[in-house]
Amino acid sequence: MKRANVGKSFEGGELNSDTTSRDQEQLVRVIFALEADMPYETESIWAKAAGNDLFVLDNVPFFAFGVSCGDKVAARIIDDRLRFSGVVEPSGHSTYRVYLNGGVSQAASADFARELQDLGCHREIGTQKFWAFDLPPKTDIFKVYAVLERGQA
Fold it and tell me: What pTM does this model have?
């Protein structure tokens, strides 16, 4: 598969996010290299510095897999950019990505998002049709699955 955005980075966590409120002066962007089949080469994820080249992720990843909001990660500066080098301590959060098909109305989309948010999920909006949800550790995953399965119809 040919990458659609060669040399470009997905800058997530900026459009209509309803996760944590961000004091951007205290946050940095950690750069994640993406797999070759992803539409971008990298994704940048907001994080809070935790000392000793460690950072706590502060938004939901869209394309970077194996990490979730709240994870403590290691990163180092390479080519003047802070680059992910590994997960140090998983947060217990899970990340789910949702692609809305073209036939879904705005009202139905809003109801779907509200239902997941009522279960404790936090949403990041990449585009109108591509969302990422953070599921904190205490979220009832079976109720979330039920909502997601209904949305597959």
Answer: 0.82
